[in-house]
Predict the structure.
Amino acid sequence: MKMPVFERYIAELIEKSTIEVPVWNIEKIKSGGKSTWNYIDGCMIKAVIELYHITGNKKYLEFADSFINYFVNEDGSIQSYDPKEYNLDNVNAGKTLFDLYKLTGREKYRKAIDTVYSQLKGQPRTSTGNFWHKMIYPNQIWMDGLYMAQPFYMQYEVEYNNKANCRDSYEQFLHVYDLMRDTRNGLYYHAYDDSREAFWCDPVTGLSDNFWLRALGWYAMALVDTMEVMPEEMAEEKAQLGAVYKELIDAMLPYQDQESGMWYQVVNRGRIQPNYLETSGSAIFAYAIMKSVRLGYLDERYFAFGRKAFDGICEKYLSEENGELQLGGICLVAGLGNKEMREGTFDYYMREPVVKNEAKGVAPLILAYIEIMMREKAER
């Protein structure tokens, strides 16, 4: 794939977006709701900040700063965000604040970091000490939540809390390894109910039914991004998480589509119709694998698997329509329970909408692209 095409795609998305209507937030556009503090925009703005770091182009920093500045009040409170909603998804956008505070010096960003952290201090927990995914999903651990919260939690502890609770974050990963991993194939189930009361869970194990690609991807990113900010004195614990991460990647590789380099929406059921090669989860693994090679968590030979996934996504799903570039093949959303009575079956994951240009696919693909740029810079 020619890289200028992808750069043009990024530019088009940013140019077409405003704070009120970011074109990558399809969920918000579909609902017709007002722009709010949310994890989807958090994913995208984090990627835009990383673009600034690699390119030095101030337009990326200015866009990210204006976007987050809109939500953060001078006292550090955040418009539309209530920490006591206890929704881990809402922590994700807080990751942008660490860099923006350092880059702009805006004191309100430092205060807002504390606002987001206040949620984690009160977040309800399972019997193992893991954060509930959301207050509305009592006793439940979702793989998604590890990515939403743990990198922020670890970074806060290292930078602003004298590393007091770093071990707590680390141990939450270990509990997930023990509770949610299938020892037969090394994959992780999407969700777990500690109470065994949710209608979708196995009454004995508490686990949901399937291996959803993006959930596995969230977990992979959570591990890589958390390890990256762990303190030096936790070298032994970091090595343990590194071993957990390598096991996960080794478990995923047999399911990688040989032709495209992508993975299927339900990872281990690629031969069953209407399963499909899904963009967001594949992009997440492309990013996680290439980044973890750069950071030394995986051997050099793994890089090719991540690069193949990136190229395959661009080849299969990045196309031009009416003069505009479009990224397709993105599962809009998937979860368990709620009013829609989402039951987590194979059929359920097949019936969720597939959309274009959604941040959950676009942002990790940008991050994967940045890893390619970093590698090319290092090789010059």
The mean pLDDT is 96. The longest strand covers residues 318-321. The chain has one domain: 3-379.
